[in-house]
From TrEMBL:
InterPro entries, alphabetized: DNA-bd_dom_put_sf, MerR-type_HTH_dom, MerR_fam
Domain of life: Bacteria
Record GO terms (molecular function): DNA binding; DNA-binding transcription factor activity
Full protein name: MerR family transcriptional regulator/heat shock protein HspR
Any one Pfam family match given in the protein's UniProt record, by short name: MerR_1
SUPFAM superfamilies, per the entry: Putative DNA-binding domain (SSF46955)
Source organism per UniProt: Oryzihumus leptocrescens
Keywords: Coiled coil, DNA-binding, Stress response
Coiled coil: 78-105
HTH merR-type domain boundaries: 12-81
Length: 147
């Protein structure tokens, strides 16, 4: 059920052609539409128009039903969860880009700060330890921005 090209979303197939391409009866497609499993686009007159993506989805529904023995309610839940996963992956990508942009804007990518010998703040590379003070103190303060 992977990714689809923009043309795969174009609603071009009438129900009889979609049924034939999916290897189903047109009445089955109507039932799936009523149940909300596969909802095609509609014309102004109310006619159903199926896209190549819809046909692929119909084939997957048929496979789950016939080969895996999944009920229609189960199929509906599977499709809902797949849509949620797709949406969440997209959101994670957006947030990752936003976070990186913020880090770049502030200039904090991969920087770690520590207290130097005279008490000043110094930048060190991740994984590097700052030099300890020669005044006998064992205190070490490390701060990482954004954590």
């Amino acid at each position: 059920m992977g990714g689809f090209a923009p043309d795969d979303e174009a609603p071009v197939f009438v129900i009889s052609v979609a049924a034939q391409l999916a290897g189903m009866h047109a009445q089955t497609l109507r039932q799936y539409d009523r149940l909300g499993i596969v909802s095609p686009s509609r014309t102004r007159g109310g006619g159903r128009r199926y896209s190549a993506r819809d046909i692929a989805l119909l084939r997957e529904v048929q496979r789950l039903s016939q080969e895996e023995g999944v009920s229609l309610a189960g199929i509906q839940r599977i499709l809902e969860l797949e849509n949620q996963v797709r949406a969440l992956r997209s959101r994670v990508g957006e947030l990752t880009e936003e976070l990186q942009a913020m880090r770049d804007a502030v200039g904090l990518s991969g920087r770690v700060f520590a207290v130097g010998r005279a008490g000043e703040v110094v930048a060190v590379r991740p994984g590097q330890r700052p030099m300890r003070s020669s005044n006998g103190s064992q205190a070490l303060v490390v701060w990482r921005p954004g954590r």
